[in-house]
Amino acid sequence: MRAGAIYWRLSNLYFWFFALLGALLPYWSLYLQGRGFSYLEIATLMATIQITKVVAPSLWGWLGDRSGQRVRLVRLGAVVGAISFAGVFIEPEFFGLMLVMLVFTFFWNAILPLYEVITLRGLGSDKARYGRVRLWGSVGFIAAVAVVGTLLDFIPVASLPWLVMPVFLGIVVSSFMIPSEQGQVRERSGGESLRGILANPAVIGFFLMNFLLQVSHGAYYTFFSIHLEQYGYSSVSIGLLWSLGVLAEVVLFVAMHGLFARYSYRQIALAALALTLVRWVLIAEATQWLVVLLFAQLLHAASYGALHALSVQYIHGYFGKGHHGQGQALYSGLTFGAGGALGAWMSGFLVEGFNTDVAFWGSAMATLVALWVTWRWLRPPPSQDSSG
User: What is the pTM of this model?
Assistant: First the structure.
């Protein structure tokens, strides 16, 4: 298959997967608020989006590594995830909605770690193009945020599930556009054992850094839209501000290869975390000033874009071919899953007891600890030339 065709096939699922995230993250807390849930209930429900990442990616990553049938597993996750999401339309109460969200996110969260491996394998020796493939996820996120935000200025937020469902169907269709894995055999891990890799202090430091980073994002992913609404921003403005952050991420992904060539992984990680700390302080203290808020959203390029691109390279370098799927799953589960869920839940207590400003100060404190961990333990991964 020609390189151009592979590029577009790989990019397509990223577009729809992150379009779903763009339809959910900025507006789902507003939908839950409209349903009458308390701040702590909203935080708990939003945490379910992350909590299934603790288990699901590890299970699906293990199945992918053992069977070699990652494309089939991605398709299964897409189809069952879409069917499960339909349970939202019966408008269940708190525990019923939690069950629906746990089921659909269990299958939806299986997709990305499997697909990261499919993408890196599909790119072969041209892994530097990963950022340009992955940026289409950011484009999908921006498109969904803009379209849904605009529509919600004309229709009630209770209609949000009807806007999300077509995006889920886009994921299903795009999952069947991935070339089938013909003749795949079970992969056997070679080289260092998984336990040996996880015992490496640099790997422990890497996961702890990302865990704390995602704890710091808990207030952002759970209460940023409510925070903005409290300061008088409209649905369209909220959507545009979310989109600006992801647009900055897109620019970063395009430029990331040049940054890798010029700076060390350690330098990039420390600079990105320092900028993340600045971002949370600005949101906590200066949301009323649009110019400052715009700058804070541009720093999403550091707090997510740079650190995610760097982390994908770390996983590939440390875990190699035999443990690659499990490495991606652990990255997703321990950081986005456990870290994101804990951050969302803790931010719920802070908002319930104080306000959203205090929740973002909590984010800043978590980032400060992440900076210390990174300074103390982060080391570059081994050469990736032979890791597949």
Answer: 0.78
